[in-house]
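Explain this one:

_____
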Amino acid sequence: MHTLYPDTTPHWKLALQQAFEQEPFLPAPGLGNPHTQSVWGHLTRSALPKLPFVRERLTTPDDDVLELFSLDLEDDDRPIMLLLHGLEGGLNSYYVHRQGRLFHQAGWSVALMCFRSCGLEMNRGPRLYHMGDTADPIFVAETLAERWPGRRIDIIGVSLGGSVLGNWLADAGEAVPEEIGAAAIISPPFDPTACAPFLASQLHGAYVYHFLRSLTPKALIKATQYPDLLDAEVIRRCRSFRTFDNAVTAPLHGFIDAEDYWRRVACGRKLHKIRVPTLVAAAEDDPFSPAASIPYADMAISPWLLPLITSQGGHVGFVGGTLRRPEYWLDAQLLRFFRTLNKDIPVAMTWPEKLATTR
C-alpha cells in the first residue's frame, strides 16, 4: 500500500512543472492542425525501426488468451515499463515502438500487453476489451511481480489504454501494489459521453469509420462464437460508437447500454483518487476528446497528478521539430518524468523510503 503525501505539493511535481514551463510544446511547421498532429505518427510509422519483441501467450484467470510482448524481461537489474496501447492498437502501433525503444535504451525492460483480440490471434472468450477493462493489466502486473519480486513496474497508457490505466489506479486508490512506481496517462477519453459525439463530428466521421473497419469484423467473430450474446445483423448496421457499444460492448461486458458504459468508465471523474505519481498529458485541440472534459481543477490540486496540458498537439501527437526531422516532444517529457521518479532509487526500495528521498 502506498503512503499518502502530506497536504503539500511534493518536490518532484514542482520541479517537473518548472521544467515543462521552460520547454513548451511547439508544433512542427506544417503540423499545426490537430488532425495532422493526430495522424502523423500513423502515416510515418513504416520509417520507424521495429523492436524485436518476444511474444508470450498468457492464460487468463477466466481461461482466455492474452498476449504479452517484451524486451529483456529476464534482466533483473532493470525496472519494467509496461505499455498499454489505444483502441485497436497493438504490436504495430507507432508509439509502442517509439516509446519502447526510448525506455529500453534508458535502462528499462519493456512489456507490451495487447488487449484481447489485439494480438496476433483472436481471443476465445465471450468478451473483447473496453475503456474500463482493468482486469487484464492487473493480471499482467501481478504476473510480472510474482516472476520478479521487488522489481519496480512503471506504466504508460495511451488513449484507450490511458483510460484503462486511469480507471485501474483510481479504483485501487491506496491499495495499488508496492511494485507500481509511476504512471503516465496520454490523451485519454476523459468523458466518453462527451467524446463519442465529439469524435463523430470530426472529419465527417472518418475516425469512427477507421476504427469500425476492424472492430466490426471482430464483433462478427464473437457473434458467431456466441450467437446468444450478439446479433450479427445489428452489428453489421453499426455506424457509430453508440450503436456499436449498444450492440457489442454493453452485452459482452455487463453494461446496460452505451450510456451506462460510458458513464461508468469515465476516468476523468475519478483521477483525483489516484495515489501513484501520475503524469496526465493531453492537448486542448485533441479531436478525440473535447477540452471541456479535461479535469483541470482535480489535477491541479492533487499531489499525485502532474497535468501536462498543451493548447496544441492533437491526439497522441505532440510532433515538434521539422517535417524532415520531427521531434516527439512528449517522449522527452515522459523520459524526464520517469527518470525523476526513479532517479538513483533501488528498484526494491519501498514507497515510504522513496518518498523520503524525492521530497
Q: What stands out?
A: The chain has two domains: 11-191+266-343, 192-264. The CA atoms of residues 152 and 179 lie 5 Å apart. The longest strand covers residues 65-71.
